[in-house]
UniProtKB/TrEMBL annotation:
Domain annotation EAL: ranges: 24-268
Range covered out of full length: 481 to 762 of 769
Protein name per Swiss-Prot or TrEMBL: Diguanylate cyclase (GGDEF)-like protein
Region of interest (Disordered), residue spans: 262-282
Organism per entry: Motilibacter peucedani
Length: 282
């Protein structure tokens, strides 16, 4: 585990402790208390205009601070989705992100899973959260898999969300199985190119895929964001291809609000991300 190797100090733990912390039943019972215990933490990763590197927005990314350990979503979110606990957690992330938005000063994007979209109270939750944030400053990110089960329902919910002034981003674009025709009929404002494609930008085929997505986004009138940009070479190619926005470790890792706004430069309140410390933008 990278944090341990790099010795950031915040998340030193043994593999045994880690696997004990992550047993499914243990995750479920832990999560049941996590929201009220204040263990659900929201970090923010900046998104920049590719050409100018001007800060454009931030993406809210949930973390679970369990004891001394900061658990990334990859380790527990599938369990929270299966158990339905993602609904309560997602509501909290949405509220937190909207509350933090004014201080952030730029629009904030929040990830929404299929489970959340399916809950009837979802729209009411969005409306409540919106009261805290500047008009037009909320983006909801959905994935193809979140809409594929019931495209008509998703289209209805997303249309209503948009009528509240919220923008919609299609996350991990290109990794799902939806047809282009279904996707093109969804009310979407932003395409986020999955990092799997960005990682292949040094290959001709990878470049062709990204170029095609950029072209598609342009044709449909969507902004295009490349995710997982890690190297200056990738940034160069993305600029050449006309990709509007970039997000990745090259330009900024996810960090706690205080670190992003520079309110407290000393102690990371929200915890240090695994592998943090190599952020070229700081
Ligand atoms: P995502 O929405 O596609 O978010 C991007 C993920 O890529 C984040 O992982 C981010 O930390 C990571 N990332 C950003 N730049 C780079 C880079 O340059 N290189 C690499 N290797 N990775 C990079 P994270 O935070 O672990 O989140 C993973 C996924 O968990 C997210 O993917 C999203 O699908 C889900 N997720 C995160 N927060 C929430 C939430 O509040 N609610 C829901 N439902 N899902 C969430
Ligand atoms: Mg996302
Ligand atoms: Mg993504
Ligand atoms: Mg992803």
């Amino acid at each position: 585990y990278r944090a341990k190797e790099r010795g950031t100090g915040v998340e030193v733990f043994s593999e045994a402790l880690r696997s004990r912390l992550l047993r499914r039943t243990d995750v479920e019972s832990g999560l049941a208390r996590a929201v009220e215990a204040g263990e659900i933490v929201t970090h923010y990763q900046p998104v920049f205009e590719a050409e100018t590197l001007r800060l454009s927005s931030v993406e809210a990314l949930v973390r679970w601070r369990r004891g001394n350990v900061l658990l990334l979503p990859g380790e527990w979110i599938a369990i929270a989705e299966a158990s339905g606990q993602i609904v309560g957690i997602g509501e909290q992330v949405l509220r937190t992100a909207c509350c933090d938005q004014r201080e952030l000063g730029v629009p904030v994007a929040v990830n929404v899973s299929a489970r959340q979209l399916a809950v009837p109270s979802f729209l009411a939750g969005v409306e409540r959260a919106l009261a805290e944030c500047r008009p037009g400053a909320l983006v909801l990110e959905i994935t193809e898999s979140a809409v594929i089960d019931d495209v008509d329902h998703a289209r209805g919910v997303l249309s209503q969300v948009r009528s509240m002034g919220v923008r919609v981003a299609m996350d991990d674009f290109g990794t799902g199985y939806s047809s282009l025709s279904a996707l093109s009929r969804l009310p979407i404002d932003i395409l986020k190119i999955d990092q799997a494609f960005v990682r292949r930008l040094h290959e001709e085929e990878g470049r062709a895929v990204v170029s095609t997505i950029v072209g598609l986004g342009g044709a449909l009138g969507h902004d295009v964001v490349a995710e997982g940009v890690e190297t200056p070479e990738q940034l160069d190619v993305l600029r050449e291809l006309g990709c509007g926005y970039v997000q990745g470790f090259l330009t900024g890792r996810p960090v706690a609000l205080e670190q992003l706004t520079g309110r407290s430069a000393h102690e990371p309140q929200g915890g240090t991300e695994p592998g943090a410390g190599s952020d070229v933008s700081s």
